Amino acid sequence: MSSMETNLNIEVVIHDTDTAILTIGGELDIDTATSLHHHMANQFLHGRRHLVLDLSDLQFMDSSGLNVLIKAGREARDAGGDVHLAAPTPIVLRLFEITGLSLATPIHSTVDEALATACSPSVPTADRTAPSAHQTDETS
């Protein structure tokens, strides 16, 4: 399912029963951060403890967006899961480095790398099922 907010596009794909991929494009700022938070909270509500955020199309992020990612990481850990950031644009990656988010949240160069880590049996919360065919989330 896709959601278009002012300057933010969010697509959600269910990878398996525990994992969702959220592709985020546009601008993540004070006007759009709440929309992303709602999408991530909805995934947690439906039992998906592991979120992979594809940031390859995210052109801008301010402190509001950063706060949403930090909060999502905390919520995921509280649920026994995690948040993995994948393929951030150079400007967004620089923000992660400056603020220290890159020290606390896994950042991967590709979505496939993030999925491999999120779905790895070595992940402490790993009572995971084998990945099923990708399907679009109809509940977002």
Helices and strands in order, then pairings?
Elements: E1 2-5, E2 8-16, E3 19-28, H1 33-45, E4 50-61, H2 63-78, E5 82-86, H3 90-99, H4 101-104, E6 107-108, H5 111-118, E7 135-136
Parallel strand pairs: 3-4, 4-5, 5-6
Antiparallel strand pairs: 1-2, 2-3, 2-7
Helix pairs in contact: 1-2
If you had to describe this structure to a student in words, what would you say it looks like?
By secondary structure, the chain is an alpha/beta fold. 36% of the residues lie in helices and 31% in strands. The protein has helices at 33-45, 63-78, 90-99, 101-104, 111-118, and strands at residues 2-5, 8-16, 19-28, 50-61, 82-86, 107-108, 135-136. Strand 1 (2-5) and strand 2 (8-16) form a beta hairpin. Helix 1 (33-45) packs parallel to helix 2. The termini are close together.
For the secondary structure, the number of strands is: 7
SS content category: alpha/beta
Can you write the helix and strand succession as a string?
EEEHEHEHHEHE
Integer average pLDDT = 86
State the shape. globular
